[in-house]
């Protein structure tokens, strides 16, 4: 079991290149299975989730490889319609991979997805999209079996009961619509960059999609005639995490390859109040600390404040004088970062979906565990600002989405070492 040992209180300074986006990449990798010609995704992040995508494509009979920071998938034919349980349970967009296989072959078997387990992560809207295109669904022993005699154009609402649009279900519906006969219309759709880039890739593949960035999409079913080369955009969650690291440590980090427009407006507004100054510089963005103040905000669908940057901002809010309040509206009870932050000295509590942080608090190193990717990221941020040494377990969650995190932090001056448990 690997752990990170972080000795805090160093101001981080320097310039880093921001990796490709995990969440965009994962959805593009699913969409790549629609094409019978090669699809090359450039700027693929070097993370464990990327390796899982390669293995899923290979298990289905496609050729897949990563070389020169690009994943190439050639799904000339799919040999089987089953996504193995041992792979599908490792990542979140398994249902989108399932939709791609169903769209391509008329049948699919896939396990309930994995990804982070900070909340119940439902897939009922994905299954509803599969039914809308004409599939019959059966669930048994943790697997979904879907089969359709023919895939016909459909209308579908991708919004959920009480949590706004589902990003994943929007993309599942889009992939099904791309291969159905006739036109499909998706309403209540997510407008996240993941959707924008999936639409971008489908268009490159020759699938007509009509979308103006609003909550309605129209797709004309047309099996992709082309292959494509597509570039994954920078990871806005990773960029946001390192930007917060600059503010946490009163340092200065230049994030190359990202623009202010890559961040949701909800994040820019809240972070500015919380003590993070972001300025556009010629090669990207410069992140420094401004006067921190407490904030009250809600997470919400893009372009509102993203749930994936909520735990990290909580770490920063431990340094803001006064009481901050967060309402987590996307994932009820996404609060797995609280025990670790509290054991480092933070005054942070959760009641239902509401988190309260009282600052400023002096943080001290502790032995903590990250139980999912952004909770672990929040603990890394706290450790960088804390006095003394923090021992962080659960780093495998970080490696699902952060490329070479220890090396990147060291390049900024942080004292970070990785150890396996036997070495401690
Ligand atoms: C809208 C939103 O912020 N989506 C986030 C969500 O995407 P992801 O695609 O994982 O999740 P969805 O957008 O589908 O889920 C949003 C909400 O809808 C609910 N839901 C989802 C699917 C479904 O079939 N039924 C259902 O009820 C979920 O439980 C959740 O409360 O998690 C990702 C990882 O943290 C983030 O990168 C995305 O920004
Ligand atoms: C929760 C996340 O990832 P996943 O959906 O892959 O679990 C995340 O990116 O913050």
Q: In the CATH hierarchy, what is the architecture of the largest domain at level 2?
A: Alpha-beta prism
Could you tell me which ligands this complex binds, including any ions or cofactors?
uridine-diphosphate-N-acetylglucosamine, phosphoenolpyruvate
User: Beta-sheet strand percentage?
Assistant: 25-35%
What is the alpha-carbon Rg in Å? 21 Å
Terminal-residue CA separation: 11 Å
Instruction: Give the quaternary arrangement of the chains.
Output: single chain
What is the share of helical residues?
A: 25-40%
Strand order in the sheet with the most strands = 21-22-1-23
Number of domains: 2
How many DSSP E strands? 23
Which terms would index this structure?
Enolpyruvate_Tfrase_sf, 2 domains, RNA3'P_cycl/enolpyr_Trfase_a/b, UDP-n-acetylglucosamine1-carboxyvinyl-transferase, Chain, 14 helices, binds uridine-diphosphate-N-acetylglucosamine, 4-stranded mixed β-sheet, binds phosphoenolpyruvate, 424 residues, UDP-N-acetylglucosamine 1-carboxyvinyltransferase activity, globular, alpha+beta
What would your notes on this structure say?
Helix 8 packs parallel to helix 10. This protein folds into two domains: 2-19 and 234-423, UDP-n-acetylglucosamine1-carboxyvinyl-transferase, Chain (Alpha-beta prism); 22-231, Alpha-beta prism (UDP-n-acetylglucosamine1-carboxyvinyl-transferase, Chain), CATH 3.65.10. The longest helix is centred in the middle third of the chain and has 13 residues, at 167-179. It has helices at residues 22-32, 48-59, 85-88, 94-105, 124-132, 167-179, 193-204, 236-248, 265-274, 310-317, 338-343, 373-385, 395-399, 405-411, and strands spanning 2-7, 13-17, 39-42, 63-67, 70-74, 107-111, 136-140, 143-147, 155-157, 183-187, 209-210, 217-220, 228-231, 252-256, 276-281, 284-289, 296-298, 322-327, 347-351, 354-359, 367-369, 389-393, 415-420. It contains 14 helices and 23 strands. The strands form six sheets. A four-stranded mixed β-sheet has the order 21-22-1-23. It has a four-stranded mixed β-sheet with strand order 2-14-16-15. A four-stranded mixed β-sheet has the order 4-5-3-13, with helices on one face. The chain is 32% helix and 26% strand. With 424 residues, the chain is an alpha+beta fold.
